[in-house]
Amino acid sequence: KPVKRTKMSRRRMTIANRLVEAQHTAAMLTTFNEVDMTAVMKLRSERKEDFLKKNDVKLGFMSFFTKASVAALKEFPLLNAEIQGNEIVRDADKLDFAGIEREISNLGTKAKNKELQLSDLQGGSFTITNGGIFGSMLSTPILNTPQVGILGMHNIVKRAVVMPDDSIEVRPMMYLALSYDHRIVDGKEAVQFLVRIKQLLEDPYDLLLQG
Fold first, then answer.
1. Partners of 176 in the beta sheet?
2. Secondary structure class of 162 (helix, strand, coil)
């Protein structure tokens, strides 16, 4: 039968080499948690129209996760380190929600038009990957070396959840995955980092107050 051979692009080759390198060199482990997205979805619903009018960009979920990651990385700086001397949205700690959403939109447009450059994928120290937009329920992200941490988002699924008073409610839940390099990040620190992400997302109003 006919066989079609397609040469890998330079960008794809670089990504492939880094993924293989990460699996060969890093002591990579993944820890999991789940987050109740009720508060984020409620806050987003309340603010999305005003946000769009004010900033001319939609308020998405990624900015909440980016701001939560920035806050958690300040508390657990080893996850923002490198074994040696990459986040698509650079200087996220200096951006407000609108700035993050604009940068994500710009990069999304570049990707759609196949205009992403290697420079767009370099220069960061922590990565967030969202398999949920494709329907992924759970995954184990591969590190983007020389970074030592990557946070994986997944799809939001309504599930029955036992509440603190032992009642059962249907809640929009998302599994989170944090892959990390055990050479410099201890399991305790990785778990605490992911718990902090969960706490910030389940009570997200402070994230908006941070700007």
1. 33
2. strand
- Helices 97-112 and 61-75 sit at what angle, rounded to 10 degrees? 120
Residue owning tokens 């986040």: 87
Phi then psi for residue 2, to 5 deg, are -60, 140
Give the three-state DSSP class for 140.
Answer: coil
First to last CA, the chain: 58
How does pLDDT run across 91-104, given as a tens digit for each residue? 666 678 888 888 88
171 pLDDT more than 50? yes
pTM score: 0.83
Per DSSP, the three-state class of 148 is: coil
On whether the CB atoms of residues 120 and 108 are closer than 8 A, the answer is: no
* 194-207 residue pLDDT tens: 999 999 999 998 77
Instruction: Report, as residue numbers or ranges, the catalytic residues.
Output: 182, 186
Q: Round to whole Å and give the CA distance between 45 and 55.
A: 16
Token pair of 12 as six digits:
């794809």
What are the φ/ψ torsions at residue 159 (nearest 5 degrees)? -135, 155
87, 204 contact by CB (below 8 A): no
